[in-house]
From TrEMBL, chains A, B, C, D:
The family this protein is said to belong to: Belongs to the DapA family.
Keyword Ubl conjugation: no
Cited SMART domains: DHDPS
UniProt name for this protein: Dihydrodipicolinate synthase family protein
Amino acid sequence: MTDSPFRLSGVVPPLVTPLTEDRTLDVPSFERLIERMLAAGVDGVFPLGSTSEVAFCTDTMRAQILAEAVRVVDGRVPVIAGVIDTQTPRVLEHVSAAVAAGADAVVATAPFYAVVTPAQVKRHFEILGARSEVPVFAYDIPVCVHTRLDPAMMVELGASGAIAGVKDSSGDDIGFRRLTLMNRDAGSPLAVFTGHEFVVDGAYLSGADGVVPGLGNVDPAGYVRLHRAATAGDWETARTEQDRLARLMEICLAARDTGGWGAGVGAFKTALKLLGVIETHQMPEPWDAFSDADVARVRAILDEVGPQA
Amino acid sequence: MTDSPFRLSGVVPPLVTPLTEDRTLDVPSFERLIERMLAAGVDGVFPLGSTSEVAFCTDTMRAQILAEAVRVVDGRVPVIAGVIDTQTPRVLEHVSAAVAAGADAVVATAPFYAVVTPAQVKRHFEILGARSEVPVFAYDIPVCVHTRLDPAMMVELGASGAIAGVKDSSGDDIGFRRLTLMNRDAGSPLAVFTGHEFVVDGAYLSGADGVVPGLGNVDPAGYVRLHRAATAGDWETARTEQDRLARLMEICLAARDTGGWGAGVGAFKTALKLLGVIETHQMPEPWDAFSDADVARVRAILDEVGPQA
Amino acid sequence: MTDSPFRLSGVVPPLVTPLTEDRTLDVPSFERLIERMLAAGVDGVFPLGSTSEVAFCTDTMRAQILAEAVRVVDGRVPVIAGVIDTQTPRVLEHVSAAVAAGADAVVATAPFYAVVTPAQVKRHFEILGARSEVPVFAYDIPVCVHTRLDPAMMVELGASGAIAGVKDSSGDDIGFRRLTLMNRDAGSPLAVFTGHEFVVDGAYLSGADGVVPGLGNVDPAGYVRLHRAATAGDWETARTEQDRLARLMEICLAARDTGGWGAGVGAFKTALKLLGVIETHQMPEPWDAFSDADVARVRAILDEVGPQA
Amino acid sequence: MTDSPFRLSGVVPPLVTPLTEDRTLDVPSFERLIERMLAAGVDGVFPLGSTSEVAFCTDTMRAQILAEAVRVVDGRVPVIAGVIDTQTPRVLEHVSAAVAAGADAVVATAPFYAVVTPAQVKRHFEILGARSEVPVFAYDIPVCVHTRLDPAMMVELGASGAIAGVKDSSGDDIGFRRLTLMNRDAGSPLAVFTGHEFVVDGAYLSGADGVVPGLGNVDPAGYVRLHRAATAGDWETARTEQDRLARLMEICLAARDTGGWGAGVGAFKTALKLLGVIETHQMPEPWDAFSDADVARVRAILDEVGPQA
């Protein structure tokens, strides 16, 4: 990779991908989604991540999403593009596509489908770092890839310049604390982001540089306030905001007619439709949009603890 | 899918993908590999499966492998092509490509990366079955996709015509017995294959129609003998052959300098090189070819219990 | 341990523990259960295993169960007693109690609750073997103890005299084949039993010496026939019997009002009550006896594929 | 249970069990351990937990440990006794013994060894709560028992009076935040403790009432300072102290010659021996005391970030 022109920090929401009823990209909704985030003060956007339904998108669809995101953002904040695929050679193709489309950085997971050893995980990121023209972020998401990223390995990859940062969706706050401490000891080569919407205040207390909140689609202003309070050392404000956002995040656990990935992303889309930001809450195949009963469950939570000006 | 022109059974090895040193497809080696299998009497071949390093292949590489396999086989046996990818829309693109390339059937796993519920797994195969022009086989491989395929669901999908068969790599012989019994009760809509090289005799006793053995790259004749003995009810011959093949399969557990997926496929490639079938034992990035010490371990096992005429 | 006075093989059912309504041992029912098994021709009995609800029994209850089992069996077949507890010092106390009560051998799992390494697992069995006055069987049951027993380690423990055999409830038929082959290569120091009621024929084909079937409480004669057919090399008879027993084993998957351990043992007790062998289908706290609806589900299966004379 | 005479909060270390070389309780070392904690200002002590090697202790040894703890503490702080065993009837016996020995409360896990459903987990705690004469704490420790305790269930058990609090060793900070929020909404029936030494500051930010730190054996004063800072809202002091304690906690990850449970408790014992608090770092069978090389690794960390006055 080349030297990074920026040091990323703050709130970088993973963008949901609004669909029309027939499951094509709904561009006007996507524009409203992004503009609302920028107005709220986010520090970057992250298309083509797990929340963006990247695993469901054909390469054609991926290219369209990224092109539109770059067009809409228009340089106002960095665009960090997911390059999610099974193993190194396939990921490298997405890296090339992302760079060509104007992404400012890319986000890659550990290899998946074929079981890898720690040596292969490290090599994977070394190869990505060596061949990418933009900074590479490592995405620790064992629920999807079933491999953990070792904190010491990540700091070593940061020190060697292979990766510029980490998005932690590991669900392991102990590992996160160890990562931030090791990173600090190594001179902080990594920008460290948490992906856990429920406990961002604690992650900041542990030393996070920022947050990649799926719920930031629904309530970007809340996460911006939380980031600013934590950065200012105003922990009481941070945790009060976090408590509200944690209650709002219950929308992802509210569905009774579906589950898994679709329960979370489906809730974000449902909330965004209810808020008038996007047009439909359509989901990619093989999923359906939330049932009426599940929509009502989301609405009840929104009514109680939804976005506040 | 259209009605299947064939009912698959017997030995259908998943083809390893021979590479040149610089990691392009080694076509002459691939030809030798396939011709040796056909000479041994296999009943089909399976390119683009896990053993074929499909997770590492770009779409361009996938297309080349399948085209060459179809060309070399030239209609002598069915070519069953893997269409492995994360979720339904991406898999559908591979189905189209496989059909266009001349595959006789396709093999798809449960969706992966994004966590799915049983309802989505079923819908996934229903969509594939409805839109594929060739028969669809369900590939139960939780070690890669981290989702199991329920026996009752598979039989239901078979009865409705969505899938034509199952390749079972679940590691669950209880589930396999339940599947074969349920399938028989439903009129045997499914052709049921085991993917477990170590215990094929037991799988046949449980009612398997065939086997998809990675080790069939190394010793296709052994699996053909095992299939024929089991089919003939000569269980003593079947288990004697299986005992030898199980000892040979220890090559996949022999490596000390690597592990995971690479230890198994690396062993197949190493053995094939030692046997003079393929040119190199090169592996895809981020893996290396077996170390000299691991090559020696494979050689020792081959010398003791390797392929017999 | 002292030299074993016997080499165990054949059918050794784990005994369910019949309870009165107020959850004390129902001795007359226990007598009927054991006498029926002996009449069917079993080769041993196994009280205080998982099926015997050992994890629910106080030490006083354990002592009573074992004393009654030894009294009823009266030397006609070996009594193999479970000595299940968390870690070595607690297991050793159960070994002493079992020997004092007249058990012919003991069955111990890997240590559990505290996470152990392979070195500790091996040491555990070495200590048990060195201090037990009767043969020790290793019980590989990861669903309960969350640790696997490595085949090579077990054969090594057999060769050194620490253990006399293995009960395999691992759900891993590949590991089982590897175990039987390694054991044979080492001169067969171990008697190897499968605990998987669904696939006993395949286990015998793999080289099993016997079976420890929970379903043997319900249909001991079926497993005796299966054992005899397999031992005689009559595999068609073996698999026909196994197919019926596999269909009968569906009682353990039939409950809709409960799950987990209670669904299996509850089904055995329910079937035994329906067959008139035991008085109640009471379960230990915190479980309830099967609901009427679940009893009906068990009855339907029994009516179709139940014990045959 | 009777109404609790106290509302527990603050620092309640789980007591290691010092052993003589021949693995009997080292009473003088145990006294020094407890007195040092009391001098540091802890709010309670917790014998017979996982750290106390309860899974290794015979019932006789358990009784001795608890008797000595009660004697030494002599009413200065509450004594919370573990009643860890596989299933309800066995746990109830430990409850009776603990009450008779003078414990002020008991701590019980979910049932283990036999797989349970959520309904059985709830019933288990209801039975314990109904029959215990002292308050019951629920111990959420999936790494040992392989079952999670659902936050909503725990709050319901708290509201009904079955349990008085929770010790969370789940490794799931999201679940912990949800628990504290639900508990607050229900009127805070539960006292909620974290067991994660690495991230206690974040747990307090999430609303923890206290901490049960194994590392509190080594550095009780550090956790008392952390508790007091967090309680006072001085989050910068809290996290500075936590950062040091997290670095100290690396002793539990330092061993190279052992692993699992023994690596953690072995490190605590080794540090306590190096600090002159206990006489030996002996471990229960089947474990050994730390090797000299591992002792050196612990010493290096202690020298850098060990207990501070």
